[in-house]
Amino acid sequence: MGARHVEIVSRRAFFARGAAAAVLGFGRTVLAQVLRYRRLSQPVVVPLETVATPWRVRPFTAEGVTLPSAATPNQPVRVSGMIVRTASGEQPEQFSAVCVRCPHELCDVDYVDDPKRLPQEIVNEIGRAVTEPVYVCPCHNSTFKVDGERLSGPAPRGLYRFRVTMVSTSAVEIAEVEEDVLIFV
Length: 185
What we know:
Elements: H1 11-35, E1 37-47, E2 57-65, E3 76-85, E4 95-99, E5 110-112, H2 120-126, E6 134-136, E7 143-145, E8 150-152, E9 161-167, E10 171-178, H3 181-184
Antiparallel strand pairs: 1-10, 2-3, 3-4, 4-9, 5-6, 6-7, 7-8, 9-10
């Protein structure tokens, strides 16, 4: 048997390597998020005045093209979405736009602007009090934050997201959508 080499690593080097690995992992996650969006056939332009009030939702329809890997590739599709202002200001980050189809069984979600109106069974499933509006799937009670993040329920992931690409003094522009939605619509 050969001699075994054991490397002694200082605590500082151990933490530095761990931090570097975390940064690389986070960077790949961010890059994956960037690569997951696809341009719409044409941007959706929503008048700013219709989303002037925080938490008031506005529906819209976007046009895209199915991905080459979809069952029916390169076909025009319409994707229903909702946009909501989440904070005051005129930056894209102050708006959230999501596809209204639940990724579980493709039922259309409902927007619940007053979390006090949520049935107790949904609050229990979330496991904590809800203080902001949410989307709820009426089929199986999957629940999502307004940014699409999954809170509870059988949905395997959050709602598909649109990217708000520009805000002007008169309009909000939505020009991209998560590309995975272009496989399943």
